[in-house]
Every structure is written in C-alpha cells, then in structure tokens.
Amino acid sequence: MATAYNPSNQFEIKTWEVEFRQTPTRMLMARVYQPQGAGRFPVLLDLHGGAWNNKDRTANGYMDEVVARSGMLVVAIDLTRAPEAPYPASVQDANYGVRWLKCKSQEWNGDGATIGVLGSSSGGHEVELLAMRPNDPRYNALKLNDAPQLDATINYVATRSPVSNPYERYLNAERLGRAEMMQNTKNYFNPWESIHEANPQEILDRGEKVVLPPLLIMQGELDDNVRPAVQERFANSYRTAGGECQYELFTGCEHLWIDDPGPMTDRAHEMVKNFIAKQLGARRAV
Predict the structure, then answer these.
(1) Which of 6, 81, 119, 132 has its CB surrounded by the most CB atoms within 10 Å?
(2) What contacts 88, CB < 8 A, 6 or more positions away?
(3) What homologous superfamily is domain 13-285 in, according to CATH?
(4) Domain extents for the chain?
(5) Rg, the chain, Cα only
(6) Which of 272, 164, 177 is nearest to 226 (CA)?
(7) Helices in 105-207 by DSSP H: which ranges?
(8) Could you give the CA distance from residue 268 to residue 66 in angstroms, rounded to a whole number?
(9) Helix 122-132 / helix 89-104 crossing angle, nearest 10 deg
(10) How far is the C-alpha of 75 from the C-alpha of 114, rounded, in Å?
C-alpha cells in the first residue's frame, strides 16, 4: 500500500550506495535516498547532467535529498559517459534504470508503480528520449534478467534546463566559441547524424508516434547554454502534440542556478515536489 505523498512532509532519510550496472569499462553505481517511515513511498529516478561527458550520480544531490525528505524514495544513477560510449548508451542506462528501480524499489520500501524521472541538462535530454520512446528496441537493449516482464514506461518527467534541442545547443556553442561544449556534443553524437535522430524537438517536428507523460521544465532566464526561446518552443511543441507541459522561467538564473542555496533554488525544490504531488494525485484518482 503506497503512502499518500505530501510535499510538506519532513522525514529523516538514510543514504547509501549500491552497484547499478557493470559496463565493459566500469561499475556504474547508484545512490539511494530512503525516507525513514512506514512507506511504501513513491519513487523517483534521477539522471544527472554533465554535457553527456562528465559528472555522476552525486551531481544533483542537493535536490535529491530535499525531495527524499518530503517522502520520496529517490535513486540517482551513474550514466555511461560519451568517451566510454556514444549515444544511445546513456539512454540505454536510463531505460534499464527505470526497469531496475521498478524491480528493486520494494526492497527499499518504495512503490515502483509510481515511478517518475528527474533529469538535469543533458540528463533532461536523456529522460525526454526515455519518456517519449519507452519501448524503443535500441533503448531496451539491456536485459533485466530478474524481471524481464517490466517495461520502461514512467508516470511523469521533471526537468531542469533540459537539452531539448541538442543541435540548436551545438549551434549556440559554435556562435559563442565554446570549443569544449562543441567537442562534448561531437563525442556523444557519433555518428554526427544521430544529433537529429535523437533530438526531442525534431522528433516532435517529424510527427513521430511518441508517448508524452506530464512534463515539468524549469528554465533559467539568463541561461546562455540552453536558450529560453528554444526551450519555450519545445514546451509549445509538446503541448501541440498532445502532452501536458508546465514551463516555468526562473528570473535572473543561469544554467546551473540550483547548485547554490537561495530563493530560486528553494522555488525549484518546491516546484518539483508540488509537480510530483499533482501527478501522484492524478494517478490515484484514475
């Protein structure tokens, strides 16, 4: 029996590390944030950013801890980085991660049927692909032997500065002379043509048949990495395609504003919790 989620709750949490998945080069790890209470708690998977080339499960720790304290079982996973393997390797990790967490969550007092995903920056790009194409055979390539019947469908998506149009971000980096960002993009989209195939904006523009779970986009007004106008276009396209999208602009904020404590970071934390509460409430009403 799942516990009703109240975003104003304050639980003590227990945090620990577990092995997630062995790749050809290393063991990917997961960090579990478990509320200490009766449960079962709703479940959130976190996908980190890092321009597809950097960072790990710890990147969004501040947000993960805050959300877990409100009564969510939060699990952040490592993703394969582009120098190890290009697209779609990290999306395969994410797809596997959804199925793996649905399977494991009961052990950690979670309710896998409630699962949603949080993605930041390039993690936002990966979760948009995961959400829109949950049954894509390329993304489902990693077999979960413990529960082969589980699929990668999710209930909702919450994002911060998602790379909803990676080709436009590459062109933006080119205009600004950001050689490292350009190279990171080329590392991941290899062959280069995959930047169009794996482009959430272009997927909608092409009219592909996709799944569109409720989506939250939190966007910094001053972000010169992922431009607000590009993000707003994606939000509108998502709605036009039939999806529900809550697009929120954060005044005076750049790309990584939630890394630092402050009123806008607090606003983002509350917004994510309230968005989750809305989706879980809608699910209970069905």
Answers:
(1) 119
(2) 129, 138, 139, 194, 198
(3) Alpha/Beta hydrolase fold, catalytic domain (3.40.50.1820)
(4) 13-285
(5) 18
(6) 164
(7) 122-132, 166-176, 179-188, 194-197, 200-205
(8) 11
(9) 70
(10) 13
